[in-house]
Protein 1
Amino acid sequence: MGLLDYVTAHSLDEDYAQAAGKRAGAGGEQPRGTRRRVPTLVALAVFGGLVATAGVQTARTEPVRQSSRESLVAQVEDRREELAETRQQIDVLEGAVEEARGQLRETTRVGRALNEQLETLGLLSGTEPATGPGLRIVVDDSDDAADTRQVVLDTDLQRLVNGLWVSGAEAVAINGQRLTSLSSIRVAGDAITVNLQSLTRPYVIEALGDPDQLAARFIDSEGGTWWLNLKAVYDLQFSMSSEESLTLPAAPTPTLRHAHRPGADS
Amino acid sequence: MIGALGLALGVVLGLLLQPDVPFWLQPYLPIAVVAALDAVFGALRAFLDGIFDDKVFVVSFISNVLIAALIVYLGDQLGVGGQLSTGVIVVLGIRIFSNVAAIRRHLFHA
């Protein structure tokens, strides 16, 4: 604090006081002619000039700064567009590659067998879109959800989906998110996420399978009884309908971590 | 009176001529302005205190501007120009504030 105190206390140059003291010592006022005022005038004029010049300088560089900022923003936007276009191109090319691969396999007998195998495996693993008859279940929080116990939890959805698998569902998706062996259903913040995508209510669960058997088996399964219970006790919304044709999208392709040639030892 | 005249003259001259500041001088201009501002407020306070002296004002004005520019120049050469400018601005700022406070006391008796 000493330094600050010093600066504040000596904010006025001591020379003024000394000069005044000398003047008083020399006896009375010194002659204050106009000539003596000239340096002050010049110094103040210089000060005014400095201020004006600095202001003009700043004002002059401001548009340059502004325009360079704008051009940067434009560049960022351009690059983003480019990136989006490139990504789209990647998608298109990947599709083409996949198609070409399929066609190539189609040309040989072994390849055709492989294609069929791939399709079956893809349906089961969720990497291929699936279409067929099935069951659509719509669940939602209670209409007058005053209590946190009256909202759908991640564990409720987990039980429901597990019930569907047990009942013989071939493919399951929640709000268009296909479930695979690597999918997770869990709460993150206020929302339930599936495949790391957060869902919005209501939750629509679609399952492919024999519609008659699937519905009956599901009601009998653990998940089914759990949900009938939730509906009765906590007034959660639950409705089930059989559909002639449902289309489930493919799950996001997992990263390939390990591969080996069929038949080769690994 | 003569002070206001000189000030107006300088501002008008600066605006009319719009002198081009050489590039190497540009970083020192704002610091010089702040240092000059300190000298001017000091002079105003001295004037109100009744101890104003032309010679002291001119000398303090010139030395303030030169020393402030010199410190920043030195800092630039040493690679601590930004920090030294901050230091100079802080000290000059404190001086300006306390001088203005004294001026305010003189003018409004508050």
Protein 2
Amino acid sequence: MPVASTGAALRRIGLGGITGNRTALFIALGLMVLLLLVPMVLPGYQTLFRTTLVFVALAYGWNIIGGYTGYVSFGNMVFFGLGTYCAALLSARGVDNLFADVALAVIVNAAFAAIIGFPVLRLKGHYFGIATLGTALAVTDIVGNLDVFGGTGGLALKQVDEAHFSIYYYAAWLVAAGAIAITFLVARSKLGYAFVAIRENEDAAAVLGISATKYKIIAWAISAAIAGAAGAVYARGNGFVDPSIAFAEDFNVYPIVMTILGGTGTVAGPFVGALILSAVNETLGHTFLKLHSLFFGAVIVLVVLLLPRGLVWLIGLRGGMRTWLKSLEQYKA
Amino acid sequence: MHLLAQDLVNGILAGGILAVVALGFSLVWGIMNIINLAHGAFIMLGAYVTWQLFTSFHLDPFLSLPVSFVVLFALGYLIQRHLINWVARAPVLTTFLITFGLSLLIVNVALLIWTGDTRGVTTAYSGSNFTVAGITVPWAKLYTLLAALIITAVLYVWLHRSKTGRAIRATSMDIGAAQLAGVRVTQIFAIVYGLGAGLAGVAGTLISLSYSLNPSMGQPFLIKGFVVCVLGGLGSVEGALVGGLVYGIVEAFASQIDLTIGTQHISGTGLQDAVALVVLLIVLMVRPTGIMGRATA
């Protein structure tokens, strides 16, 4: 039997309240602070960690709509992509300011999400998922075919000189930290409870007076804004944008995998998942050049079988081995 | 007019393949509530089984259809029985993730076995075609469409007439009630997943006749199968066929778009997918259960 995910029931088995397990959250925050040191301590790994931070932000963006609100989006890469193009278009017009990039990306994406949200969020479950995927693929095609966006040739962005390059790292860190903070604050506010109510039972939520449409659109706009901000800082650090970079499948699938790996609908989960997945990917990539995707696939299969609720769940687990072994049986057909 | 007729024929011919691609995906999704991201990998395996038999034993691709079905059915059955079954009733995201991992695994094993080189299955009739009223029809694609129609019909009859077929449909309606009536759900799930993989294998064989092969070839078909299956109606056999044909035709017509707005030139070949997906969105708005779907919770 699936466990009812109300706050009290979650706390009883050690999952924590609406923000998830507290220990996991502290561990995540501690690691996040440590990540600030990367440009000074491990300058050689700066690009790797910058990309990881972008994925952290993307995972948090997805977690708001997919984890908290329960609307599984397969199209969040479109917001990332539009974010990268916001920065690229600003750069093409001579505006080279990271704050302007992020601000424009946030506004454009929140507006875009709200507009397409009206028709798309009327759909439920799988149909919502496929509609978001459709939107994402259609926008990818359209952007690749319009001259304003540089077509398939792409657009170059002006960057700062080599000596100040770590500014892009700190920008990515700030966006990721902002995403964590927003998730924490949103989860604890009235918004978060509305999102979870919609996830658990949309009809019951509506009966309680929660305007499902309104809150779903808010959730999607927040999700889109975070993904857009991540895209803007990624584009600046990368220095170049074209449709195959901006709308790469990786930016769609990895954040989802990371969030599920860490634990959906928790504040610590996406961070833990993103960090572990990036580390595994990187280590395997160096050790077994040809086999690393194979091992990556095997790792995912094992994690799903052994930790069906995500890693954060394991940190707060009460009852030790026996609860864990029992939990493995709970979803068996 | 003539060009339109040619597009219509091209669309129908392409739609036949898409229908078979969507068939297995739709069954697994509709009956087990699993979004099977490994479907594209199964398609690829089916195509490689055909290629291997063709290059090693000169076996005609149409004769290798049953072989790829049986091989993939067995693989799918074992995967469901021993891996996915552990999380079969978990939220849809969990199974989504495990099939994503499986897909990565399978594609990379295929890379090790067959390398990333592009392969092709070139039969005696590969390049030949015939012309009726000015419309060109490639033989290989016509045979493919016929095979697709036969497979769909056989599956439809089997699901509605056979004992196992009835048990499968009962499971898709209400797992608990089916169990009470004596249906062994674990067994049914393994059969359905095996069937989904087997149909993917068949689709792979049909695809290998008209497209080139490489280990990541399944991905675009997975996405199209996704769309077709929603377009037609989840878990519906006849829906997959209708959805596949509609998608194929829309895509073929979309490739003919040729617009110039101001200085901006828009050509249809790049926007094929975009137009098809916009059609999908419209269908979803107007009829969220798909063209042939029933209204269910």
